[in-house]
Structures are given as structure tokens and as C-alpha cells.
Amino acid sequence: MANVSVAAEWQLLYNRYYRKPEIYQMRWKHVDLSRNKVACASFGGPIAVIRDDSKIVQLYAESALRKLRIFNSAGVLLSETVWKHPGGRLIGMSWSDDQTLISIVQDGTIYRYNIHAELIQPNVTMGKECFEQNVVECVFWGNGVVCLTEGGQLFCISDFKTMKPYKLADVPGLTEDDMLQPTCLAVREPQYTMSGNVEVLVAVGHEIYVVDEDEAQSIRFDEPSGEDSEMQNDDYGNLIGPVQKMIVSPNGKFLTLFTHDGRVVVVGMESKQIAIDYSCESALPPQQMAWCGMDSVLLYWDEDLMMVGPLGDPVHYFYDEPVILIPECDGVRILSNTSLEFLQRVPDSTESIFKIGSTSPAALLYDALDHFDRRSAKADENLRLIRSSLSEAVESCIDAAGHEFDVTRQRALLRAASYGQAFSSNFQRDRVQETCRTLRVLNAVRDPDIGIPLSIQQYKLLTPVVLISRLINAHSHLLALRISEYLGMNKEVVIMHWACAKITASASTPDAHLLEILLDKLQLCKGISYAAVATHADNCGRRKLAAMLVEHEPRSTKQVPLLLSIGEEDTALVKATESGDTDLVYLVIFHIWQKRPPLEFFAMIQGRVLARDLFVAYARCHKQEFLKDFFLSTGQIHEVAFLLWKESWDMGKNPMASKGSPLHGPRIKLMEKASNLFSQTKEHTFESKAAEEHAKLLRIQHELEASTKQAIFVDSSINDTIRTCIVLRNNRAAAKVKSEFKVSDKRWYWLKTFALATIKDWEALEKFSKEKRPPTGFRPFVEACIDADEKAEALKYIPKLSDLVERGEAYARIGMAKEAADAAAQANDGGELLERFRKTFSQNAIFDTLKMPFQGVS
User: Fold this and answer.
1) Distance CA 132, CA 127 (A)
2) Angle between helices 718-727 and 745-758 (to 10 degrees)
3) Least confident stretch, 231-240, 307-316, 739-748
4) What is the predicted pLDDT for the residue at 822?
5) CB within 8 A of 49, min separation 6: which ones?
6) Contacts for 630 with CB less than 8 Å, ≥ 6 apart
């Protein structure tokens, strides 16, 4: 009997059963769909209702101001707002995939609302042409819209996330002839087209055009077959004729047309073949058309809803009130003033169980449970009949339970599955548990207070993640949290959204009390981002609350930037330095640097060693002037002096610092400043003297370059300066440098000797050696002559060497072995030098000549 009562509600369309269970009795009051524009979201989403300003309606104890009201699918009011936008008449509205209400008015302006009837800024326009020509019709799809203007032009937004309108190609003849207007539009979504771009189907007269961004092409759906083509002439024409209404199937492969002569024609978009051709009783176009899954098409006139399938007679449903058809992936929701119904094809598993006279294994299993409950032996008989197909029967009962909206029937089917599972050894045991888990979630969201009547197929297509996202957007946080816990999903998104919503709604709650409430829930989820909640609190003007929240954020990388954004620079600097993350410390330093006066900035970083060192390291390379101010403010005068000294050296590397350059003057002044600063500290007396002498040397070198007109002095050492002066025969300048820098006589003799040897002025060298007894002896003269490869000149000074070892080595260096041996023999070094010479000269040809003298000496 139960099977009979269930199947009695079905309607047969050729060989397929359809059912239309009532999901909700609508809870709204005084809502007449015929007086309003209505937008219903897919997947059991919200319903937006606003009075239709294109109709003259009678007001019943209501304000003349139009209100946009948003209900859930059970008619429970979620939010409302007064509609007071300019731009002309409301042309159309629809819900996007992310449940944003898109409303388009006559001048092409787009107003967007969230589910709480809050306007989303900024408003967007379809463009100048739409503003000038006015929008007359718009067609929405999941995440886009196409608008038709009075001038016959088409404009499209293909993605509501980017909101970038663009113009489509012109339809031939439409823009030239003002009297020619499209009779209907349809959209083929981008994911179903070959090009990946949206295609708009436009019916104009006898033609149907496919329009994209580049071109508009006329298409034919009833071309003659190959064998009949020779019988057709060029005027074959479109047999379908003018089209009054059309819609594209959910998978984009079929197009349903309602023609001028009352025919319903379904054709393939690719094959161009007619799949359905049914003649209606009336040629009056239907108010609405919709696909019911992929199996049939619904057409609605006043009080008559007709369903047409591929074969057989149509099915009629009669209503005494207006209805709205809401297409879904597996059926159509039918919304009326008083109820919400779901028209769908009866699933195969349900049909096999409840079809009248069914003897399928699933039906027998369901019947066996009924006999078992009545303690009848017939239960055992049914089980024996289906023992070989018991797994199949259990699977059918589970699948049928998933497709049911009635909880009692779900329970009965699941009990039947569990009953059969007890006698089946090769069935997956977790299938019943998995279906029970899914049905618990679905039954929870189907509750009228939540009002999301998802079928199991819609739920799988939508995914639990998106469902939870929609629940939290509707502020059903408790249910979203329980579902997340039940399904083992991450609770962080739910709790964070709740916390942000709580802050927004608790404007009058004291910060301390609100913090306590928030922490009580935020602590339920480990690793949750307190910084994100604190950011929202700051955006809501609760800066103190934000500072209190961010104290609980364990991750410095999220904590520090937020502290900076809410003006807590001191705390941010402390947290950054404690973390040891140099990138974070630099972030805080640069932020404070820009926001605070210099002295205040210096005081903040002075007490933080890491921050101070990082700032100094950066400023040494990029901001030396600012670093000087820092050192001066902190009393580190010697550091300023070092910077001035370095700056002077950097000037010397400048290619502009050449002969006669004005940069030499600033360099000297910098050195003098550095010297003065060094002199103010007792610990840097050496640096002070060195800087002073460096400045003096630079001044002398600059004068030398000016007088000699040769840029060869600056930045050379004192030794090089003296040597260069002697080479240039400027002995007076060399003597001045010697005097100024108190160069010792020994160094002076070495420098002058080698300088005279460099210019090969042997006469001057000899004269210099006779001026007085050299304090260095004659070794510098010998070395200079030997280095210049002048043996004759060297022989003038070698005999004058008082040290016999040096004399012997000198003779050896110029190849005079006999003289070297004589000197070595006279040296009082225990024969060490003589032995070294023997080893040295034994490898040369001269060894034979030296053998006898060596032997004699030894």
C-alpha cells in the first residue's frame, strides 16, 4: 500500500515518471508574484522580490516606496531595504554564483546587493552607449549578463568578478532598421562554446543569429539532408519560421524554440537536428520556459504548466496562482504565492522500489522489511528470492533514500538497506553511514528557518565547502559550525566570519566584554588568525579592541603589520625585535621612519639593539646624512667623524674629482670637520691627528697638481708624493713635503735615491751621495742602481758598503763572483755566506773560475 501511495503522485511522460513534491509552505505574507519582479538563486538560494514598476498595481496598506526584500526559499524574510536608485526602470535582476544580487536599470547602471540587502560599492555601468540608448532587455547566466539596447546593440559582462563590459558584434540589419527588433534572446555560456567565449542567440524575423565579440552568424537548424539537397533551391528558407521564445539546455548542447505557429522545437546546437517537434494548442508564447534536467522542457502560461518530452503526450499541471520556474541541475523548483515544489524525474532507484507492481530486488527488500516489522515469515521468503542480487537491492535503497525529501521515507529506505546489509557479506559497510551523514546535513539545511532545499545531486555539485560558505554569509554560523565539525572540516573560516559579524553587530558592547566573548569562541580553533579578526575590528573603528585582539596572535608575521596599521608602532617594534626576523624589523623601521619626526624615531630605535644595528647598516649604504643626525642625537660624535672621512674618500672615487676639480675643496673641508670631531673625544686622538694630516696632504697635493698641471698627486701617499716631486725635479716641493710631515732622513734618502734612479739621473745621485754621509749608508744607492740594471753605477757604491755581508751579496747580484767570494771570505759569519755562494755559483759556468779561490780561502 505504501508503494501505491508513493507512485500515485507520479506523472508519466511517455516512459519516464516525474514527481512534484511540495518542499515548503511559503511563510511570507502578502506577496503576490504577479505584482513583483522576482529573482531566485539556484541551488536552493535566496529569493529577491521587488514591486514591478512596469505594471500598474494597487497598494494594500503598504508604502508607495518600493522595497527590495530578500527571503530564503521557505519565504522567511532575511533582509530588506528601500529601493531609491536613479537610472530609470528596473530591467532585470539575478543572483550570481556567489549569491550577489545583480540589478540592472534602464540607463545601464548595475547595482549589487549582498544577501543582507546591503549595497556593494562601487556601482558599475554597462557603458556610454547603454546610457544613451537605454537597456530594454537583459539575459543573465551564472556569472554574467548580456544587455540589449533600444538601438539594437548588444553589450556583455562575462564575469561579475571583473565587471568589465564590452560590446558584441552587430546583428545584420538590426542597427540600421529601427523597426526591426529581436523577438527573443538566449545565451550559450562560455564553458559550452568552442571558442570559450559567450555566444548570444538573437532571433530576428525568420533568422537566428549567433553573436560573439567578433562576428554575427546566421544559423539553420533544419537544413535538408544530403539526398534531398538537389530537390531544394536557393530559397529553401528557415522552416522553423519566426521564433517567439528560446532557451538553451543546461549543458549547452540543445536549444528549445517556441515558434510563431505554436510549435515547441528542440534542436541540437552542433548537429542542427530536431530532437522534439510538438505543436501546442495555442500560438501564444509562454510566459516562461525552462529545462527540467536534460529530459524535458517546461512551458508556463497563466494557470497551465506543460511538460514536453521527446515522445508521447505532454503532462499538464494546473495552478490557480502565478508561479516562477527555477531551473536546477536535476529538475525545476516551482515557486508560487503559497508553496515551493520541486519537479524532477523520478530516480531509477526510487522507481524500481515504489513503481506499482515492481518485483525488482530493491522492491522485494523494501517489502521484506515491512513483513519483518509485522513478524511475518514472508520476509525470509523475499530475502531468499533476491539473495543473488541482495547487494544491488541494498545499493538501490541507499540511493533512493538520498533522493528523498521526506524524512520518514528516508528512514524507511535506510532501514531496508541496513536490513539487507545484514544478510550481504560483500557489500561496502560504510555506504549507509556515508548516506546518513549526507542526509543529516541536507535535512538540517532544508529546515524552513534555514531554507536551502538542496537535493543530493545539487549538494554533491555544490560541495560542502560552498554550502558552509553560503551558511556563514547568511549568518547561520551555529549550523555551519556544527556541519563543519560533523564532516571533519576546518572550523576556522566559520569562527572567523562569526567573530567579524559579531564585532559589526556589537557597536555598543564595551571592548573588554566583547573581547571576552570573542576569545571564548576563537580559542575553539587552534592556529586561528587573530590578526584577521583584529583587522576587521580596526576597519569597524574599534582600534582598542583590535589592539587587544592582536596581542593573542602567535605569528609575528601577521601580528606586526597589523600593529603598524592600527598605530601601535612601539608595540610593533618590540614584537618584531623579539621575533628576530630582520625583515619584520625593517618593515617597522621604515614605517616609523615615514610616520614619526626624526628625533622621536631616533629615540625609539636607540633602545633596541637589533633595530638600531639594522638601521645603521641600511643608512650607511643609502642614507648617510640621516645617519649623521642619528649619531649626533645619540652623542656618537666619532661615528659622525668616520662618516665624514668615508664621504671624503667616496668623493675621491668620483670621476669628476680630476685636475682643478672643485671637489677637492669639499674633501679637505670634510677631513677637517672629521678631525675636529675626533678631537672632541679622548679615545680618538690618533684618528684626529690622522684626519688633520690627511687634510694637509690633500691641500698640498692639490697645490702640486695646480702648479704642475698634472693630476697625479691627489690620493697618493706621502712617500709617493715625495718620489713624484723628485721625479719631476721639483726638489723644493719634495723638501716641503718632507718638512711638513717630518719625514725622517733615512726615509728621505731611500725615497730620493730611488726617485733619481728612476729618472736615471746618475750624476745627481752621485752628487746626493756626497752631500754628507748618508744616515742609511750606501745600501739605498746600491739597491737603486741594481734595480735599474746599472752595474757600472752600482760599482761606485758597493765598495763603500761597510757591511761585508751586504757587500758580498751586492757583488753576487751583479754577477761578480770573485769579488763576492773575497767579501764573503772576509766576513765574520763562520763561512755561512761563502757556503751559500758556493751552492749558488756551482750551477753556473763560472764555477771553474771560482773553484780555486774558494778552495784557497777555505
Assistant:
1) 9
2) 40
3) 231-240
4) 73
5) 31, 33, 36, 37, 38, 68, 69, 70, 71
6) 598, 602, 615, 616, 619
Domain 624-839 has CATH 1.10.150.780: yes
DSSP 8-state secondary structure symbol assigned to residue 803: -
**Measured CA angle at 468 (ends 397, 159), to 5 deg:** 110
What pLDDT, on a 0 to 100 scale, did the predictor assign at position 858? Answer: 36
Find cell 562554446 and name the residue.
Answer: 193
Q: Which of 598, 536, 545, 605 is nearest to 570 (CA)?
A: 605
| Residues 6+ away with beta carbon under 8 Å from 433 | none
Which pLDDT does position 577 carry in this prediction? 80
| CA separation for the pair 439, 445 (Å, rounded) | 10
- Indicate the pLDDT class of residue 732, thresholds 50, 70 and 90: confident
Q: Is the pLDDT of residue 33 over 90?
A: yes
Distances (CA, A) of 286 to 23, 245, 346, 378, 855: 25, 8, 25, 52, 137
Q: Is the omega angle on the peptide bond into residue 510 within 30 degrees of 0, that is, cis? A: no
**pLDDT, tens digit, 9 for 90 and up, residues 468-488:** 999 999 999 999 999 999 999
Helix (H) or strand (E) holding 51: strand 47-51
| Residue reference for cell 560504510 | 430
Sign of the dihedral defined by the CA atoms of residues 368, 370, 372, 378, in that order = negative
Q: Walk across the sheet containing 263-268 and list its strands.
A: 243-248, 254-259, 263-268, 274-279
What is the number of helices (H) and of strands (E) in the chain? Answer: 34, 30
Q: Percent of the chain at pLDDT above 90?
A: 36
Q: What number is the average pLDDT over the span 729-756?
A: 77
Q: Which residues of 247-257 are buried (b: 16+ CB within 10 A; e: fewer)?
A: bbbbebebbbb
Could you give the CA distance from residue 372 to residue 646 in angstroms, rounded to a whole number? 100
- Amino acid sitting at position 430: D
pLDDT at 672 over 70: no
Question: Predicted confidence band at 116 (pLDDT cuts at 50, 70, 90)?
Answer: very high
Tell me how far apart the alpha carbons of residues 357 and 363 are, in angstroms, rounded to a whole number: 9
Phi-psi region of 624 (alpha: psi -120 to 50; beta: other; left: phi over 0): alpha
- Pull the grid cell for residue 663: 671637489
Locate 281 and state its grid cell.
494548442
DSSP string of 637-701, one letter each residue: HHHHHHHHHHHHHHHHTSTT--TT-TTHHHHHHHHHHHHHHHHTSGGGHHHHHHHHHHHHHHHHH
Could you state, in order of their start, the residue ranges of all structural domains in the chain?
A: 345-426, 554-610, 624-839
pLDDT range class, residue 425, cuts 50, 70, 90: confident
Cβ-proximal residues to 858 (8 Å cutoff; 6+ apart), any chain: 831, 834
Placement of cell 547602471 in the chain: 109
Name the residue type at position 409.
Answer: R
Report which secondary-structure segment, H or E, holds 339. Answer: strand 339-345
Indicate whether 609 pLDDT > 80. Answer: no
| pLDDT at residue 318, rounded to an integer | 94
Comparing CA positions, the residue from 450, 319, 354 lying closest to residue 23 is 450
* Each residue's pLDDT tens digit, 811-827: 777 777 777 777 777 76
**From the centroid of its chain, how far is CA 430?**
39
What gap in Å lies between CA 297 and CA 255, rounded to an integer? 10
Least confident of 245-259, 266-280, 806-820: 806-820
**Which one, of 417, 429, 358, 368, lies nearest residue 393 by Cα?**
417
**Neighbour count for residue 567 (Cβ, 10 Å):** 14
- Look at strands 216-219 and 243-248 and give their pairing: unpaired
**8 Å CB contact between 329 and 27:** no
Q: Phi and psi (nearest 5°) for 314?
A: -70, 165
Mean per-residue pLDDT over the chain, rounded: 82
